[in-house]
Fold this sequence. Notes:
- By secondary structure, the chain is mostly beta strands.
- The protein is 6% helix and 51% strand.
- It has two domains: 21-154, Jelly Rolls (Sandwich), CATH 2.60.120.10; 155-259, Jelly Rolls.
Amino acid sequence: MQQAMSRSASSRSVSSIIQAHQTFEGEGFLVHRPFPQHGLSDFDPFLLLDEMGPMDVQPGEAKGAPDHPHRGFETVTYMLSGSFEHRDSAGNAGQIAPGAVQWMTAGGGVVHSEMPAREFNRTGGILHGLQLWVNLPKRDKMMAPRYQEIPAENIPAGASADGKITVRVIAGEALGVRAAIDTRIPIHYLHFNLAPGAKFSQPVDPEHNAFAYVLGGEAVAGARTAPAHHMVAFARDGDAVELEASAEAPLDVLLLAGAPLGEPVARWGPFVMNTQAEIRQAIEDYRGGRMGSIAH
Length: 296
């Protein structure tokens, strides 16, 4: 059992289990989206979670997200299989390979694209990844855009003493391992893998919102269970989150927690601000070319 399993911590109860709905984004790639959806517009400070695929892509048929703008929040792309190439209006370009993370702070505005890497498009294969939108506090909404790109081999990883629990620490800390990524507000973004029957308890600030998203297997949380493509939302009634893998199969699960901003949210497509006037200004700035364009 991992060191975090201390009985002095009070475990949070489950407030709801939400099934992700299927939709299509960009040029037409499949996503499973636990939120936003009817009855759950956001999970402060998180605005959206998309699981891209998994889908078997034939050679030449991979789809992506062509040039589009963002302002007022952060996009976090985490690839599990397949790869994307990104470009932006500031002249940045790179590739997000399997296991890598790109944490893009759009701030005051950027135009970017995420398209299938040429080699992946040539060969085809399994496309599977995640995109998370993280809201920015009012003080940071117009900050200069920035990228943090971490290749797979540089994502900190930890394991329990018995080897039954492993974790990749994208943001925050778990199993004594701290993330390499700097966040604007306190956030945990943890990718756990559990052997059948294994159980972990992750300390979480009692004031933070927390949820788990099941990628594979079945998560057991108290007396409730959640299969793949389901989100487990936890109540803010404790300082730890406990999850267990079923006895029949390993569990592949994300755990996310963050400090709620408690600020007004105005959103329109790729812009998330605090007021409708700021949204109108963002639209005007984009249409007027003030967010730049991508040189292809």
